[in-house]
């Protein structure tokens, strides 16, 4: 009898904490929708601050994700299949942007590519300025989002059964054709989910962007920066942009879960 009472008590306590955690997460997000003035939605969507931020965010995040996928896929494949000196150290460095504060990432980019930076001073001498430009936004996004794709892609490549690759090579396929027509298709779900996560991280980037690219409307002011700016004068515009980012984040998580589940089903089959 006592054990039964103890078990019920633990269960009730677990349910209580479960409800508290869910409420703590859901309430702030729901408050955005409750506080939004939906009657003026059309006016907010046509406001220059919102339009410019949306356009710039989707443009830069798309470009940065494309760069991450093109450059990160070979890196992930090499780390998944080959051993080389200082591999663990390099792999750790690739993951480092995930855990360092975004402001540190922005300052590091500024010290490297700013007008007086390690490399930036030489580029500046050639008439190339990167800091506080749209290109700086893309660079900041690539820096902070690339680990999300590379880590997921590496895991996907590691999960590919090499028997399929050996079979393709036995049939006369070159290493490149084997990679393109055997390895990549098998790992595609993981690559796509990694790209989606990378894009979402780029879309929501704030700290590194404001440090390295600044906050100039129409040039470097992405949605997170526009939210910060609008908070000082137009709270409804900042709420609208926040709702858009929340909706995108929700869709991203659902998409990644569906792709992951599909990948598991295929692997089991």
TrEMBL record:
Keywords: Membrane, Molybdenum, Sulfate transport, Transmembrane, Transmembrane helix, Transport. It is a multi-pass membrane protein. InterPro entries: MetI-like (IPR000515), MetI-like_sf (IPR035906), ModB_ABC (IPR011867), NifC_ABC_porter (IPR006469), Sulph_transpt2 (IPR005667). PROSITE patterns: ABC_TM1. The chain crosses the membrane at residues 12-34, 54-80, 92-113, 125-144, 179-200, 237-256. Pfam families: BPD_transp_1. The keyword Transmembrane applies. SUPFAM superfamilies: MetI-like (SSF161098). Its main location: membrane. One of its GO terms (molecular function) is molybdate ion transmembrane transporter activity. It is found in: Cell membrane; Membrane. Residues 54-256 form the ABC transmembrane type-1 domain. One of its GO terms (cellular component) is plasma membrane. NCBIfam families: Mo_ABC_porter (TIGR01581), modB_ABC (TIGR02141). Belongs to the binding-protein-dependent transport system permease family. This is NifC-like ABC-type porter/molybdate ABC transporter, permease protein. The gene is modB.
């Amino acid at each position: 009898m006592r054990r039964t009472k103890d078990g019920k008590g633990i269960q009730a306590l677990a349910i209580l904490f479960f409800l508290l955690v869910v409420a703590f997460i859901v309430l702030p997000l729901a408050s955005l929708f409750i506080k939004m003035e939906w009657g003026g939605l059309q006016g907010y969507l046509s406001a220059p601050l919102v339009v410019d931020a949306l356009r710039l965010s989707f443009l830069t995040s798309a470009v940065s994700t494309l760069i991450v996928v093109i450059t990160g896929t070979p890196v992930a494949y090499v780390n998944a299949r080959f051993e080389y000196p200082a591999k663990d150290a390099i792999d750790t460095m690739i993951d480092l942007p995930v855990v360092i504060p975004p402001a540190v990432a922005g300052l590091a980019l500024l010290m490297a590519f700013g007008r007086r930076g390690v490399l930036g001073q030489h580029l500046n001498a050639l008439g190339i300025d990167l800091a506080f430009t749209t290109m700086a936004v893309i660079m900041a996004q690539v820096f902070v989002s690339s680990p999300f794709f590379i880590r997921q892609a590496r895991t996907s490549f590691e999960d590919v059964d090499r028997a399929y690759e050996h079979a393709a090579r036995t049939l006369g396929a070159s290493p490149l054709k084997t990679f393109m027509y055997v390895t990549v298709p098998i790992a595609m779900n993981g690559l796509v989910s990694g790209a989606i996560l990378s894009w979402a991280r780029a879309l929501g980037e704030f700290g590194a962007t404001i440090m390295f690219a600044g906050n100039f409307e129409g040039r470097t002011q992405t949605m997170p920066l526009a939210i910060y700016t609008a908070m000082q004068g137009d709270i409804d515009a900042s709420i609208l942009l926040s709702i858009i980012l929340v909706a995108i984040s929700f869709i991203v998580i659902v998409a990644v879960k569906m792709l992951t589940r599909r990948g598991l089903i295929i692997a089991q089959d």
